[in-house]
Design goal:
With 97 residues, the protein is mostly helical. Helix content is 74%, strand content 0%.
């Protein structure tokens, strides 16, 4: 599950131009957020299934512009929780720069 959490954070950082694909893993960019995201994913995966987390889903979730994702967030409390954690992560990220 931790790998999925890292993948989420990697995609978010990349899609928002914080890092490039060639940037080595940097603890400062992640802080203690890998375990926090991991904890939320532990609730989500049993509810929605690991196959829910496709590349397309991760991409859409990171972009945050898809009606499908907004719909899914409204329908699944666990995704709303993930959305909040990721918003908090962005706030934290802004404070560390």
């Amino acid at each position: 599950m931790e790998e999925l959490a890292k993948k989420f954070l990697d995609e978010i950082l990349y899609d928002n131009d914080f890092v490039t694909r060639w940037t080595p893993f940097h603890e400062k960019m992640y802080g203690d957020w890998v375990p926090k995201v991991d904890k939320v994913l532990e609730k989500i995966v049993p509810e929605l299934g690991i196959e829910f987390f496709t590349e397309d889903f991760i991409q859409m979730f990171c972009d945050g512009m898809s009606d499908d994702i907004e719909d899914a967030i409204e329908r699944h409390g666990c995704l709303a929780e993930l959305h909040k954690v990721l918003n908090d992560y962005f706030e934290w990220l802004g404070e560390t720069e």
